[in-house]
Design a protein that fits this description.
By secondary structure, this protein is of the alpha+beta class. It folds into two domains: about 1-30 and about 95-163, Thiol Ester Dehydrase, Chain A (Roll), CATH 3.10.129.10; about 30-65, no CATH class. The protein has helices at about 5, 10-15, 30-45, 55-60, and strands spanning about 25, 100-105, 120-130, 135-145, 150-160.
Length: about 160
Amino acid sequence: MTADKAAARITQEMRDRLNVWSEPRISPPVDLSDIRRWAIAVYWPETPPRLYWDVEYAKTTRWGSVIAPREFNPFAWPAVRPADMMPSKFKRDPGEHSLNGGQTETYGAQIRVGDVITARFALVKLEERAIKLGPALFRYTETRWTNQRDELVKSRIGISIRY
């Protein structure tokens, strides 16, 4: 593929979508049972730290209540899967290859029982690079989670690579 064809990977439609934030996706209130199940799964076969399931113990910690593990996902068990998350939405052009370029997460406020988390995402950067496999398009997407107090819970920059 020539450099001109690689440049054509960044379309005007992509440029127009840069830094345009999605509609919010809102979680149901986080339940103690959700946090407990997540912690059991993450720490299996060991017993998870009491901070993630024992209300009385958690009251004695610096947090003062049960908190969720950092990697907890309040969107993990949706009753109805949103249409924009269906696999057909992510089909590629024939002959196009993709790689996961990794992600970086930054954590803020702890998720607690009763929190309602709002997620929004945006395409924040497009970059073309030459890699060993040929010309490639790097797409950087930022996802932000905030709680009902508008505190940042987590920010993630994910990179997808198409070549």
